[in-house]
Amino acid sequence: MNINLDVEVVEEDQTITLTLRGEIDAYTAPKLKDALLPLTKKPGAEVIVDLEQINYMDSTGLGVFISALKSTKEYDSELKLIQLQDRVRRLFEITSLDSIITIESTVRGGN
Amino acid sequence: MENTKLDLDNYRSLLKEYLLTKNETALYQAEQFSKLSMQHNISPEEIIHVHIEALKELYPDLTQEVNDSLNFLLEAMISYGLAYQEFQTLREKQSELQSEISVAASMQQTLLSTVKPEIKGLDIGAISVPANQMSGDYYHFVTDKEDDTLGIAIADVIGKGIPAALAMSMIKYSMDSFPENQRNPSAILENLNRVVERNVDPSMFITMFYGLYNPGNETFSYASAGHEPGFYYHGDQDEFEEIEARGLVLGATDQATYRQFERKIKKNDCIILLTDGVTECRIGDRFIERDEILQVIKKYIQLPAQEAVEQVYKHFERLQEFQFRDDFTLIIIRKEV
Amino acid sequence: MDFKPCVNIRKEWDIVGARQLGREKAKEIGFGTVDQARIATAISELARNIYLYAGTGKICFEIVDDFEHKGLQIIAVDEGPGIRDISQVMEDGYTTSGGLGAGLPGVKRLMDHFDIISEVGEGTEIRASKWVR
């Protein structure tokens, strides 16, 4: 519970990349929500969330991504998740959220 | 004030006794005095004041420095006294909230209570334990006297505690309001999805597995809305198979459809349903893998179903040092004949 | 009424000045050491509130001596942002700074009478009195 979540935002024109590090659970989800939701409210923006360094996420995290997805529909922006760890990917698969959220399907090899 | 006067006499004599004898009895009495003072909401600065007064009476020639330093101490204690008083009020408030939550929790239990049905040929075990007072897990059995079918719902609301419990109560009521003849797992999930999508916060969602067992043709039909996959236990081989039923969680979009699956249930086979409170068990930093859960279930699966679910629960309760992080729900249904 | 002694609060050290003046008044009226200390602490909290949330303001003192009471009234006035939700500010456990025991609930506890008038955007006036026993 003392493990935190770091959020790093890089904006390049319409492409906004959020790099997350740590754990997403009931304690850290509000931080993610505060960082992610406003970004999805920019029409035309492509919000990319890099989850490579997220080794744990619970259902509260899924909730944040669902509300972000709903927000992209409302504001005509896009949401894409990349570099998911297996455990996190499994959550999106079980809940079939991978059918409505764009998730980069190939795991980056090498480094 | 009257009280303090009385106490001043008492304190003065205690102090005097201690200064003379340095014995433990006086110190013990001082302890009693401070406890009594707290009961009467006497703040620390008042006790220091009493001390100063008593000291002055006993030693009229106290040096100015000692006198001033005691007044300094008195000033420094004012904020402690305030903090203590606020703490007391907050403690009272907390116990009020606690009892309100207990009332809500028992209301929830009444609302969501389900009778584990007695169905010929089926042995059913079910356990559901909330992590906090109120649960975001839910299971429900629906029986039909005419055709002897058994409907089983198991659901998990994101998060836990009161918000989850409120959402769960809503689900329960919508399910109750569906027409009697509507018992198709996929149709039930589609209806519920619309209810959840319309009525809850965008970041809230619910996972649910709904199954319907028809003893007439020994068939189990089911559909899942993103729920943690359950298991099918093959009694003859002593092996588990994951029940595959993909489907989107309730509340993510307004037009989700759910595929319905069917399978025949053989004698001595079991259907095992659970929530992610079971699979998300953590021991320190390590997660329990699904295979480990199966090993534990396997160990107890020969027991009567109710005993089996209780033993599995006890096992994980001990592993997590009796502190579950999430609500825990497990159902085992065995076909006996 | 116009001759009430006041201390302007502009910087943190003005809080000390307000305490000092308040203590002198309290001593004059005949408060004992414990009550003097309580009054000083209440002044601190009120002055600190002005300093933190309004920026500037003043703390005034009025000696009360009528048929009913004899005592000291502290009047804290500022033209700051005002308090939107007074009930919330008066609630125990609600502090934006200072932690347990601090803030306006603390002042209310230390004093015998307490009243706030506040308009959002216009300012706040707090009156807190203590009676000599």
Structure description:
- The complex is a heterotrimer of chains A (111), B (337) and C (133).
- Chain A is of the alpha/beta class.
- Chain A has helices at residues 29-40, 59-75, 86-94, and strands at 5-12, 15-24, 46-57, 78-82, 102-103.
- In chain A, helix 1 (29-40) runs parallel beside helix 2 (59-75).
- The longest helix of chain A has 17 residues, at 59-75.
- Chain A is globular, with a radius of gyration of 13 Å.
- Chain A starts with a strand and ends in an 8-residue tail after the last strand.
- Chain B has two domains: 2-92, KaiA/RbsU domain (Methyltransferase, Methionine Synthase (B12-binding Domains), Chain A, domain 1, Orthogonal Bundle), CATH 1.10.1240; 114-335, Phosphatase 2c, domain 1 (4-Layer Sandwich).
- Chain B has helices at 2-21, 24-39, 44-58, 64-112, 161-177, 185-199, 276-279, 290-300, 305-319, and strands spanning 122-129, 137-143, 150-157, 206-214, 219-225, 231-234, 239-242, 261-264, 270-274, 282-283, 286-287, 328-335.
- Chain B has a five-stranded antiparallel sheet. Chain B has a five-stranded antiparallel sheet with strand order 2-3-4-5-8. Chain B has a two-stranded antiparallel ribbon with strand order 10-11.
- The relative contact order of chain B is 0.11.
- Chain C is an alpha+beta fold and 133 residues long.
- Chain C has a single domain (6-131), classed as Heat Shock Protein 90, CATH 3.30.565.10.
- In chain C, 38% of the residues lie in helices and 29% in strands.
- A five-stranded antiparallel sheet of chain C has the order 1-2-3-5-4, covered by helices on one side.
- Classes of the chains: A alpha/beta (111), B alpha+beta (337), C alpha+beta (133).
- Chains B and C meet through helix 3 and helix 4 of B and helix 2 and helix 4 of C.
- Chain B: Residues 123-335 form the PPM-type phosphatase domain.
